[in-house]
Amino acid sequence: MLFITVTLLMIQLQSFSRMFLVLSVVPIALIGVVAALLISNKPIGFVAILGILALLGMIARNAVILIDQIENERAEGKAVWHAVIAGAMSRFRPIMLTAISTVLGLIPIAPTIFWGPMAYAIMGGLLVATALTLIFLPALYVVWFRAMETDGGYTGAARA
Asked: Is the Cβ–Cβ distance between 126 and 102 less than 8 Å?
């Protein structure tokens, strides 16, 4: 399944660099998962692990959406620095709204004994990872593609 996932990401993003950018933000979801499970005093069992696997897909989807928007901005002729800013600003609200609606949708099953650990894992991981993805991924993209801000505008050198 990991091979299929990486292959599909490669087909969709059409670049090893962009695929590695997506895969680099996926593990940050574990910060929120651990925090949420510790705060709620829920065990990390089978159901929580299922939630974590689903969460990893959600975070990868958010990263793909953000990178795709940045690439669309670059295709319009914008320099890397400006494309990253414009892409992050235009995708901020849709990504946050889907994350918040998912978290709110999981609240009813959070107190249950069976589904509770999964709900807390997804809620905590999604909130933290979404916020960190919207900060970390654009910064990583700028560093990876060596973008620079200059006085007269935006410029950057791309490497695929």
From this structure: yes
Tracing tokens 């574990």 back to the chain, one arrives at 30
**Sheet strands (E) in the chain:** 147-150, 153-156
Which amino acid is located at 72 in the chain? N
Instruction: Tell me if 128 sits within 8 A of 29, measured CB to CB.
Output: yes
**pTM score, two decimals?**
0.84
In the beta sheet, which residues pair with residue 156?
A: 147
C-alpha to C-alpha distance for 157 and 124, rounded to whole angstroms:
37
Tens of pLDDT, residues 49-84: 999 999 999 999 999 999 999 999 989 988 888 899
Query: What is the C-alpha to C-alpha distance for residues 16 and 54, in angstroms, rounded to an integer?
Result: 23
CA 40 to chain centre: 24
* 3-state per-residue secondary structure call for 13-38: HCCHHHHHHHHHHHHHHHHHHHHHHH
Contact between 63 and 25 (Cβ < 8 Å): yes
Q: Which amino acid is at 40?
A: S
To 10 degrees, what angle do helices 80-106 and 46-75 make? Answer: 150
